[in-house]
Design a protein that fits this description.
D-Maltodextrin-Binding Protein, domain 2; single chain; 11 helices; five-stranded mixed β-sheet; 2 domains; alpha/beta; globular
């Protein structure tokens, strides 16, 4: 018995359906800071690689940690984080090593950003886990009309004459480092017995500030709306540019105690689904147009060219892992909410 011709045709088409079905869409899940993945640049990448990019923005290292820890990093393919955080994520096995040779545009970078073993926090056992992308110090932005001379100390944030006109950052690790620095101590290694003193320092800061911000755009709006006098710039020159672009008459100062400074890198999550696409994004970010966008749009420095910078004369204090990030986060949450931490808070 033979099948009619049309039945043979249907059977043949059914066999071809898997081959005719559209390929599964490629998706890059990106966890990054404001200004690192502008919409128009993301669209360029999507068109070039016929992929979709899902961008999740963070406003603090605390938020970054929480998001990356969910599902052991499986919710994201690529993250942007500072070297101190990268070191912690490597230890927690949330990242996977990468091969810079597979990212061609790393050869465009200045040598100091390619000398990976000399960059603390991004290599372990000879393996590279992150590619440097951008950096800045955390300086003091001040309203020129309210200062006769630039503020020269980090302790200006606690000046009672500026009460209600100071803006500070809502981040646990950085704030404890800042308070420890103001006390003349190591910003990254707070002794157990010093925590009550540093906590009191932060309580005093909370009483002196107008508020704590998360995102740079939020800080710029608050600064102008409330005629703030002083801003601790966690995002550095990115915030300086935003305020100047908005017409604010502001200056920028590096305190005599030194300025905390960060080097942000791209790193690939252990749970990355499309390794080649993650590598392609890093490569794309190191092309001159995107690197220039960091400078021209954000006021940040890139790793392809020397930055036009202040004479900091060795006053940059590059971030390092802290003694206990969880303890800092726990204490900061209580301080921020207005609750006084117990003096004998357990480590």
């Amino acid at each position: 018995m033979t099948y009619p011709t049309h039945r043979l045709l249907i059977a043949a088409l059914l066999c071809l359906l898997p081959a005719l079905a559209p390929a599964e869409e490629r998706v890059l899940r990106l966890l990054a800071w404001p200004g690192y993945a502008d919409a128009d640049l993301v669209q360029q990448f999507e068109r070039r690689h016929k992929a979709r990019v899902e961008v999740t923005l963070v406003g603090s290292d605390d938020m970054l940690r929480r998001k990356l820890a969910t599902n052991n990093g499986g919710n994201f393919d690529l993250i942007a984080a500072n070297t101190a955080e990268i070191e912690n994520y490597i230890q927690q096995q949330l990242l996977q090593p990468l091969d810079p040779r597979r990212i061609a545009n790393t050869t465009r970078q200045l040598w100091r950003f390619r000398d990976y073993p000399k960059i603390p926090g991004i290599t372990t056992d000879g393996k590279v886990y992150a590619i440097p992308y951008t950096y800045s110090e955390m300086g003091l932005i001040y309203d020129r009309t309210q200062f006769t001379s630039p503020p020269d100390s980090i302790t200006s944030l606690w000046d009672p004459r500026l009460q209600g006109r100071v803006l500070a950052y809502n981040g646990s690790s950085h704030n404890f480092s800042l308070a420890s620095q103001a006390r003349g101590r190591d910003p990254f290694r707070i002794a157990a017995g010093d925590f009550p003193l540093i906590a009191e320092q932060l309580i005093a800061l909370r009483r002196n500030v107008l508020t704590f911000y998360n995102l740079p755009e939020e800080a710029a709006a608050l600064f102008r709306e409330h005629k703030a006098a002083l801003l601790w710039a966690n995002y550095g020159r990115q915030q300086l540019k935003q305020l100047r672009d908005a017409g604010a008459d502001v200056g920028y100062a590096i305190p005599r105690e030194g300025a905390l400074a960060w080097l942000d890198c791209w790193a690939i999550s252990r749970g990355a689904r499309d390794l080649a696409l993650a590598e392609a994004w890093i490569d794309f970010s190191l092309e001159p147009p995107m690197s220039r966008a960091l400078v021209e749009r954000q006021g940040l420095s890139n790793t392809l060219q020397e930055a036009d910078s202040l004479d900091v004369s060795g006053r940059l204090i590059w971030l390092r892992p802290v003694e206990d990030a969880e303890r800092r986060a726990r204490l900061w949450e209580r301080i921020y909410s207005g609750e006084r931490p117990p003096l004998a808070e357990a480590p």
